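Predict the 3D structure for this chain.
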Amino acid sequence: MPFHAGLDWGGASHALCVIDGVGQVIVRLDVRHDAAGLADMVARLKRVAAPAELPIAIERPSGLVVDTLVEAGYPVIPIHPNVVKACRPRYRAAGGKSDPGDAFMLADILRTDGHRFRPLVPVSDDIRALRALVRGRDDLVAQRVALASQLRNLLEGFWPGAVAIFAAIDSPIALAFVGRYPTPDSASRLGEKRLASFMAQHAYCGRRSPADLLARLRAAPTGLAGDAEADVKGELAGALVAILERLVCEIAKLSSHIEHAVAQLPDGRIV
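Done. Predicted structure below.
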């Protein structure tokens, strides 16, 4: 009788469910994400069926658990989260999520529609390293976007001009501007010559002239915060700028590393 399994990604542990050819649950496991837990998972799965005869569905096609299963010889089949979401109403009326329930659902989707999905193919260490780089960069970019939104919202409440002067608040020049002029008062004496000097100092490469940028700054609404509030919010803006500047720098380094790694691949030119 064929068997199928589903593994739902959790935090410190993962829910794994094995079903038979008619959808009956054979085994449920709570897989701990440590050496003993992974070894126990493989040992208990081998009691059910030989690795080659037990395909395992999972939403997230990477990580130590996936590597452990692939290394042990199990066919690991990634199923996109959108597919799982679309199937969820078929399995329970309420759309809530639970790890054991999703583990069963993944296994059953594999049982009924397994022919529609392809198992993971083992890849070289270089490709795995590149994937780790790309995932890490994506995570940092998400943090940059969130922090940039936080900075933008903060500035719009007391210093709208700092948001308006440059196109992107998380660009190096915009961050440098907020770091140098964190409050409206700090920019009260800013003129074209001083702004031109600032732009040259920070290698501004945009197409706007100092006069155009200054016009943007002065056309922005005036913040209504008092001096004390503006000073405090200026300090908060400076803290966010410091984090964002480091984050932008590290993302640029990772991007360069990724480009180099891709170029070293046999098909790097095609990629």
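The domain at 127-264 is CATH 1.10.287.4070 (Helix Hairpins).
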